Amino acid sequence: MTTVREAGERIEALLDELAASAPPATMAKVSELLRSVMALYGDGLERVLELAPERVRDLAEDDVVASLLVLHDLHPDSLAVRVQAALDRVRPYLGSHAGGVSVLSIADGVVRLRLEGSCDGCPSSALTVRNAVEAAIFAAAPDVVAVETEGVSDPAEPALLQIGRYRPDECPVPAGGGSGRP
């Protein structure tokens, strides 16, 4: 099943292709068509919410419907509430990897977070945690354009492995290569 974000990216790619090859008058018609379809769907969703106000919360729990509600500015929860709910859902996982996460700020669609705990300084664990957090936020808040994290190593930076000089008299393995066990 295609996610709402993937569908949006595909629509943008198709529009870019059309813009590169279609005459301006055709692009103007395409834009008008898209605005009309979007307005129709937005009005329809708004009407559904008016007809079934007791179901708004249930509708907002569905990922696809929630994304459409966000798109048409009809979601019952603010961006901050949706981001916090996403973090609450991923916190049990974080507890086993990073310890915790806190929101530093949310502005202009950018969520700034601080990851705390044992993950600090561990690139592979940091990447796993960062991916889990980002996936949860983007699923709950498709209107977020970026997630920036602090408190974790940059997984793009290679981990530094320090190797000292080996001295046979300091070797923990007994002479003869045995394990030291009887």
Structure explained in plain terms:
The chain is mostly helical. The chain folds into 2 domains: 4-71, no CATH class; 79-150, Fe-S cluster assembly (FSCA) (GMP Synthetase, Chain A, domain 3). Helices cover 54% and strands 11% of the residues. Strands 1-2-3 form a 3-stranded mixed β-sheet, with helices on one face. Strand 2, helix 6 (123-140) and strand 3 (146-150) form a beta-alpha-beta unit. Helix 5 (79-97) packs antiparallel against helix 6. The longest helix has 28 residues, at 24-51. The termini are far apart.
Provide the fold topology.
Layout: H1 4-21, H2 24-51, H3 56-61, H4 63-71, H5 79-97, E1 100-107, E2 110-116, H6 123-140, E3 146-150
Parallel strand pairs: 2-3
Antiparallel strand pairs: 1-2
Quaternary structure state of the chains depicted: single chain
CATH top level class name of the largest domain: Alpha Beta
Give me the secondary-structure category.
mainly alpha
Shape: globular
Name given to the CATH homologous superfamily of the largest domain: Fe-S cluster assembly (FSCA)
| Extended strand count | 3
Helix content: 40-55%
- State the end-to-end CA separation: 58 Å
CATH architecture of the largest domain: 2-Layer Sandwich
- State which percent range the strand residues make up: 5-15%
Radius of gyration: 25 Å
Descriptive key words:
182 residues, 54% helix, disordered C terminus, single chain, three-stranded mixed β-sheet, mainly alpha, GMP Synthetase, Chain A, domain 3, 6 helices
Short summary:
With 182 residues, the chain is mainly alpha-helical. The chain is 54% helix and 11% strand.
